[in-house]
Amino acid sequence: MPAMKRLSQLLDNNRRWADEVTRKDPQFFARLVAQQSPRYLWIGCADSRVPANEIVDLAPGELFVHRNVANLVVHTDLNCLSVIQYAVDVLKVQDIIVTGHYGCGGVTAAMASQSFGLIDNWLRHVQDIRDRHPQLLAEGGVKALDRLCELNVLEQAQNVCRTTVVKDAWDRGQNVSVHAMIYSVADGLLRDLNFCATSEADNTALFERAVAGLSGSASAKV
Questions:
Q1: Strands 177-183 and 40-45, how do they pair?
Q2: Which residue from 156, 161, 146 is spatially nearest to 191, judged by alpha carbons?
Q3: Which of 27, 28, 49, 195 is 20 to 30 A from residue 106's alpha carbon, by CA?
Q4: What is the structure's pLDDT at 5?
């Protein structure tokens, strides 16, 4: 099948979408061309069921997005670090939101030590988190998997706080907050994991308090 035919549905969908947006708001694309000034940076999972803009009902241009398998922030990942640097230093975002989701395939594979090839090296980071929190995961089953999804988000939010980009921003007094949230595909709701760091000084204490809260009750809905 010719390449154009393979993608004809997407092209048709795009034309309908552009026509509908222009009909409702004739200046929409002109505004997008003029500037990009998002307040938020979203670091999320690449899972196709978790579309960032739709979940929080924000239009294009309002959310700067980076996604990868299992929403990891790894200190040697220049792709992710470059996104954070551009968002903080150039776009001047005010909120960095690390968002995981329950039922994450990457977290599930890491939990069970499943092997899928090259990606095993990437998911080793999640396995390290698993191994650091045996008591919180001792129950096993779905509850332990959900808990590891939450722990992974909190660890990645803390990793954001430890980047030179965010630390330098805080040192110069820039208004940047780092948040940890988790999404449920089952009900479409985001849940706040009670981590909101606004300076380097409070990040460790916030992390420990948020982790301790996981052993008590379910995360609060927002």
A1: unpaired
A2: 146
A3: 195
A4: 80
- Indicate yes or no: pTM above 0.85: yes
Partners of 129 in the β-ladder = none
Residues 160, 83: contact at Cβ < 8 Å?
no
Note the pLDDT tens digit of each residue in 89-131. 999 999 999 999 999 999 999 999 999 999 999 999 999 999 9
The answer to whether the CB of 206 falls within 8 A of the CB of 197 is yes
Q: What is the pLDDT of residues 134-185, one digit of tens each?
A: 999 999 999 999 999 999 999 999 999 999 999 999 999 999 999 999 999 9
Structure tokens at 128: 């390290």
Residues 147, 142: Cα–Cα separation, whole Å: 9
Average pLDDT, whole number, for the chain?
92
Residue 128, CA distances (Å) to 116, 133, 134, 148 in order: 17, 9, 11, 11
Measuring CA to CA, which residue among 125, 105, 104 is closest to residue 116? 105
C-alpha–C-alpha distance, residues 127 and 140, integer Å: 15
| Residues linked to residue 179 through DSSP beta bridges, in sequence order | 97, 196
Beta-strand ranges (E) seen in 32-156 are 40-45, 63-68, 95-101
Active site residues: 45, 47, 49, 101, 104
CA distance 38 to 134: 39
What's at 124, amino acid-wise?
R
Report the run of H or E that residue 178 belongs to, with start and end: strand 177-183
Nearest Cα to Cα of residue 128 among 148, 105, 157, 104: 148
